[in-house]
Structure formats: C-alpha cells, structure tokens
Amino acid sequence: MRSLLLPIAMLVTSSIALPSMAVVSEKSLDDAQQLREIALRSHLGYDIVESLTVEVGPRLAGTPADARAVAWAEDKFAQLGFDKVYKQPVKVRHWERGHASASVISPFPQPLAITALGDSVATPKGGLTGEVIFFDSVPELKAADPKRVNGKIVYIDARMHQHREGKEYSLAVAGRSIGSSVASEKGAIALIIRSVGTDKSRMPHTGNMRYQEGVKKIPAGAISTSDAMMLMSMKKRGKAITITMDLGTTAFQAKTSYNVIGEITGTTYPDQYILIGAHLDSWDEGTGALDDGAGVGITMAAAKLIKQFKPKRTVRVVLFANEEGGLIGAKEYRDANAKDLHKIKLAGESDFGARSIWRFDSQVHPKNLDLMASIAKVLKPLGINHGDNKAGGGPDVSILPAKGVPVFSLRQDGTDYFDYHHTANDTLDKINPEELRQNVAAWAVVAFLAAQSDEQLLPLTINTNLDK
Amino acid sequence: MRSLLLPIAMLVTSSIALPSMAVVSEKSLDDAQQLREIALRSHLGYDIVESLTVEVGPRLAGTPADARAVAWAEDKFAQLGFDKVYKQPVKVRHWERGHASASVISPFPQPLAITALGDSVATPKGGLTGEVIFFDSVPELKAADPKRVNGKIVYIDARMHQHREGKEYSLAVAGRSIGSSVASEKGAIALIIRSVGTDKSRMPHTGNMRYQEGVKKIPAGAISTSDAMMLMSMKKRGKAITITMDLGTTAFQAKTSYNVIGEITGTTYPDQYILIGAHLDSWDEGTGALDDGAGVGITMAAAKLIKQFKPKRTVRVVLFANEEGGLIGAKEYRDANAKDLHKIKLAGESDFGARSIWRFDSQVHPKNLDLMASIAKVLKPLGINHGDNKAGGGPDVSILPAKGVPVFSLRQDGTDYFDYHHTANDTLDKINPEELRQNVAAWAVVAFLAAQSDEQLLPLTINTNLDK
C-alpha cells in the first residue's frame, strides 16, 4: 500500500554497499548495440504474434481457447530454445459473452451495435426494454435523484480523445467499471455506456466491470462511438427514447489457467532475474493482437535474441494469465512467489499495443540511475528518450514495486491504441512490423544490460512490511 | 445497348439548330457564383443526412424501414418548400439478413466476422460445415477441376486497394456478383469471399449478388479483410481448413417501394427538367450515411438553395428506390417515364460518398461543350477540374444516356469510400461537413446553370431505337 512506502534513500542508504566498478562493462555495451541491430532486422517478434493470433486467436480467460493459448505458449518457448519452461496454476473466472443485440424501439427504430461488458449478467431471456436516461459521467449519475433513474436504462456518454499516453482512459473508464453499480443503486434496470474508445466506428469496446457487493446486478453493455453519436443526436429531438437490449452472457465456474514462464538461464547469477512479461489472455471479440499478443511477441523475441549473448542474470519471460479479469495471474504470481520476489532485479511488462516506443522510464534506487542512463544511451538510436524514475512497470508488474521489485517502462505511442482496444478490430493487421521490431530491440537492450550489470539492483522504495 | 449508339455528330449535326446566343447570361453566371458561396456556408446538406440517418437509419428496400424512409423523404421535400412532391411506385425485392456467423473448426478454431451477401439463400438450419478450397479470383475458380471443388466451401481472396476513382472495384466485385453461381456449378456447398473493400478491419462488406438461372442456389457470405488475412496465414500452415457457417437470411414476397421526387418548378421552361438524384435505399448494417445519405443530402440541399434564384428550367430531385438491388427504381423510372425522357435536359446522380469533388465530366452533344466549359469555370474555385465528355452520370442515371438523356458527373475523391462501403461502419461520423458543403455547392452550380441556359441541351449519342 502507498502509505507504507518510503523512499529507500531515507531509510537504508548507508547500509547498502554498491560496487564502485563501472555500472556495465564496455563489452556488454558493445554486445547490447549488436543485439539492438540484430533485433531491428529480426522478424521473430512479428512471427510470434502472427502465430498466436492465427493458431489460437481470441483467448478469454477460462475458456477452451485460453487453455489452447497456454499450450501454445509452452510449445513456443520450447521451440525457441528457452532453457526452462514451466507454468504456474491460476484460478480464473470464466465468463462468456454469448449473443448481444440492442435497438432503439422509439421514436426512431434502428439497431445499435452493442457488446456486453465483461462479467455483466445476462438480460432476462428475450431481453429487456426501457426508457433511457442520459448522463455525461458517473459523477453526474451519482448526483441524480433516484426517482428519475428508477426503472430506466442509464446511458453514460463519457467521451475520450486520442492522446499519445492514453491520458483520458482512467477518467472515461469509470462508467464501465462502476457505472452499473451506481445505476443499480438508483433503481436502474440496465446500463449502457458510450464505448471507452477514441475511434469513430461501429465497433463497441468491451472491458472489465465489477459489481459492488450488496447491489443488485443489472446488465451492462457498451455501444459503439458511432451509435453514441447517433443516440445523442436522437436525444436532441426531445422525445423519450426507448431501447431494447438482449445480452446472452453466462458465468461459469472458476477454471484453472496458468502463468506460462520461459527462462534464459543466467551464466553468472542464475538465481537473479530480469523479468519481462506480457499477458497471454485476451478479450474474445478480436484476436488479441495488440492486447496483448504484441507484448507476448516482443518479450519472447527479446529474450530469445538475448540468449546468444549469454546473459549473466537469468532473463525470465512471464506470460500472465487473466490480466483482463483484473491482474488475476499477476496477483497469483506475486503471492505464490512471495519469498522469491527479492530475486527479481528488474521487471517490466509490455501491454500498450505495438506502436514505437518513445520513452524509457525506471523506478529504481537512485544509486542505479547511472545504469539506467547507460541503458538509455543504447536506446537513444531507437528514437527513445530517457524519461523519469516514476515508471509503473505495466499493469501486471505494477503490483511488484510495493514488494520491493525495481521496475521499468518502455512507453509506446498510444495515440490509436484506444481505437482498437477491447474491440473485434484488435487484429494482426493493426501491427506495423517495423514498429514491432523497434520494440523488440528496446526490450532486448534493457533486459540484457540489466542482466549484465554487476551492480546490485535495488528498489526506489522499501516496503516497511517486507520483514513482517 | 452500346452497339446501337452512334455519335450524334455523325447522324444529325446538320438538322439541329443550336442558338447562337451566349450559352448562359452574365446575370446567371453571377447568380451561380452567389449560389456557390451561399452553399459553401450552408449546413443544410449535412442536416439532411443527419436527419435521414438518425430518424430513419438503415433502410433496406422492401423493409418497414424503407417505407419510413419514403415517408421521411416526402416530409423533407415538403418542409424544404419544394413546389411539387410526389412518388412513383416500384416493385422491389424484400430480403432480410437475419443472423450470420462463421468459425474455423479446424485446425485452429476461431470465429470469423462474416456477413451474408444480398439475396443469398440461408444455410440449412444450424449451419453447414465443409473443407475450404482457396482461389484468388473468379477466373481461377472457373478454370478449376470440378472434382476438386465438389462438396467444398469455395473461398475467393480477390484483393482491392485504395484509389481515388475506386478503380479495382469492378474487378474485385466479380466474386461477389457471380462467384456463388460459378462455385455451385462445380458442386460447391457454399461461397465465402474476402470482402470487396479497401480497409483493414473486422467489418465485412455486404453487397448484391445474383444467382444464374438453373444453378443450385448456395449460401454466400463475405468475411472481413482482417479475417481474410488471418485465413490466408492459416492456409500457409498447409493443413486442411474446415469452416462452419450459419446464415439466417429470408426472402420475402416482393413489396412496393417508391421513387420519391421533389421539384423546384422552372419559371421559363417548366416542362424541361434538370434531374439530380441519389438513391434512398441503403444496406441494412450501417445507417447508409455515405451510401447514399450523402447523395440525398447533397441533391436535396442543392435544389433547395437554387429555389431562391428562380431557375428557368425545373430542377427535379429524384430519390431512387432500391438501387442496391440492381437499379430497380431507376429502371422503373426509365420505363414509366419513357415518353417524357426527352424533357430531361441534363441528369446526374451523387452516389460515391461524401468526399470532395475533384472533377466535372459531361456526356453531352459537342455543341453544348461551351456551356459545360462555362459551368466548369464557376466550379473551378471549388477545386474542381474540367474533365472529359465521357461521364457515366452515376449508377441510377447511367441507364438514361441510352435513351437520349445528356448526363454529367461530379466525381468525388473515393480513396476511402471502399473502406466503409456496404459495412456497418457506413455511419454519419464518416462525413466531413466541410467536404459535404463543397459537394452541395458544386451540384447547385451545375444544376442551376444547366437550368438557366437558353441553349438546347442534347445528348452525345442518339439511340437508333428511339423512333421504334
């Protein structure tokens, strides 16, 4: 938890003996540059994403396709010659979408492109029908008189615009994550949101939601941004709007999935790990090419290419289970490996699409910043700037700094990421092989140089609970 | 028919007395320029498309939505103050899509985004399953040994690339229009085509097809270009591919729809017509914004704006029924008005989206080319070049030159038209209001100046059948 974190510099600076040698050898820097150039010419990252999207396709956690993805990952690690391949069981939710349809019934009948939000309950058989009440945001809904909302379908029209860093996502996503509970508390019969996306298209965006305990579960769906625009234009006509919606979702019993792990064993420090990862699961409507097949391809390829340079530390690739369900595999990874997390010397996840990386951030002890600067120098020819020491590490990895794990981020251009995010349009054709190669090169450089440094790698903050 | 057409210059040059006066008065040219500037500031064209897509939406011929579109058009003409509003009955086919799904069953199970082609028969209840045989084109399929095709699902992967003039459409569309009959003759159980589109997306493109007489009707669908790419990658793995597909189409009895017509009556030559038009029907998955709501908005707005300048000839806006079914309304219009077609002095249809116009073409008698040049001068500030005298006139209008009607084309930039054409993604958000205004201005200028010229307007060719 945040409140238990203090800058390590304030606590333990004097007690840590950092080596005085160069943060990384000239030989390793030369190797890293060579590795970078090899990666820039390698098609391996793209081949891996192609393989995953063609041979497995969508792989929603808990489904048979998810099980095929796990088998695919084990096979792929083995084919690529990883030294160690294993998996770790994770209990995941299993929910399936089924059919989804919606239409305006009056005043102007026409169909809407809708998708159920992840974990939504189904509508009653044959669907439900109700008058729509419009809100621009969750706060506006929260402020509404329940009498106005009761018995209606709540519609939330939170908008999101393109931005390199995807800045508006966290705001816009509130309607998706908690909207149904807020609406239900006021007596709404269902929730429809404008898709959390930056496209202008007829592709609705799904994504995770969670019902608050004690609140009646009401069905929740997202309509495409094109339909949202149409619905808001219809609203201007000033007549009551009635919608029917039919979501055929099913919640099954929890299933066992797996974090799948492949390692290139370190020559000098085999028990110290540089963890690079991605998540293996995907939403069900696209083929999970950008989210997160790209990350799978980038990190597997980076580690494979590192192998020929014989890294000193072990490079561990973790393909997390069920990230989309709420970091389920990551939490299991954290808990099951609680006693060994200190062996992870640096960690990062690639999970923001497949566009070029423009910035390298870290979250490491200040004494490791020279090493980060050395790494940044090798990244520079890739068009990557050295950022700050406030890296999050990526969704699944973001929970590790609280356990004392140093992390890094290689930040991708996310301008069009939310055009495709969680839609059927998340497919291989959205990946530019050239940009993917730049990603592989960057991940290879960071993981390799972190593996090569004889310097002790330490976290920025120490969790005061660590010793408990 | 083409073989009956001869250049009029060869036949009747000497018999036609063309007036020697200026092709159009200075006053009319001034008015046309003023009209152009008014149109460039008018939001009317966009408001009309918005109204049609929001208040009616998709309007497949023969459906209740088509009937609502007819009522909408009559109301809209009346609201806009057209002098005369009427409709002409057209017998149209009535076909509905129902559900559509498809999946690869083996070797790599995953769903495909599919849509039925217009007029396709349904699959047997519960769908059909078969091994896929791949072809690049209809000619390749035609050349195939029936033994290889028999009992299989034929897949045709004809590709199409973006082009300002949509040049590859006529080639790529062969698989859609006749592929099912060719496949069926060789014993195929179904046809799947790569969508006839230039996008990279998960949106399949529907469109019309026609079964040859005497051939067993087999179900026919199109998969999205993203799925086509995936399927071709799967094929490279060298294993037999089995697909299941389920199309729930229904053919109903023919219905009566209508060509809806609005006129601004001419002050001097009320019985001579400048016909500008678009088609009112649309495919069912989008809202028909580009195809052809844009044309409806452009031509209605152009005529409405012309009204204040009191045109000498009557400006007639024809909204054709069931273009998508194969120019059904246009053929009815031609036949029902056979005796009056000579009163149409110039005709054109807007049906290629909503992007800017870049070229003005005509198909008129050589003696009318000076008038065309005068019109082109007023179009020039809109960024429109004067093209040639080989205009087609637009789909519905293309059948009129054979009956002696002079036509024109205002050619739009079609670069991204086939990204959205016949998909669910044909929605209002694809229309740039600025570009639509340029269209309205151009149509207003051409229709107005053609209405103002006291010159006799004659066709390029005379049909030798005309007197029969």
How would you characterize this protein structure?
- Two copies of one chain form a homodimer.
- Chain A is an alpha/beta fold and 468 residues long.
- The first copy, chain A, is 31% helix and 24% strand.
- Chain A has an eight-stranded mixed beta sheet with strand order 4-3-10-6-7-8-9-5.
- In chain A, α3 (44-55) packs across α10.
- The longest helix of chain A has 20 residues, at 433-452.
- At the A-B interface, α3 and α9 of A face α3 and α9 of B.
Question: What shape does the CA trace of chain A take?
Answer: elongated
Largest sheet data of chain A: 8 strands, mixed
User: β content of chain A, as a range?
Assistant: 15-25%
Structural class label of chain A:
alpha/beta
Roughly what percent helix of chain A?
25-40%
Descriptors for this entry?
homodimer, 468 residues, alpha/beta, 5-stranded mixed beta sheet, elongated, disordered C terminus
Brief write-up:
2 copies of one chain form a homodimer. Helix content of chain A is 31%, strand content 24%.
Task: Note the topology.
The structure is a homodimer of 468-residue chains.
Chain A: E1 5-7, H1 8-12, H2 26-40, H3 44-55, H4 64-79, E2 84-96, E3 100-106, E4 110-112, E5 114-116, E6 128-135, H5 138-142, H6 146-149, E7 153-156, H7 169-172, H8 174-185, E8 190-194, E9 220-223, H9 225-235, E10 242-247, E11 250-264, E12 269-279, H10 289-307, E13 313-320, H11 328-336, E14 344-349, E15 357-363, H12 369-379, E16 385-386, E17 407-412, H13 417-420, H14 433-452, E18 461-463
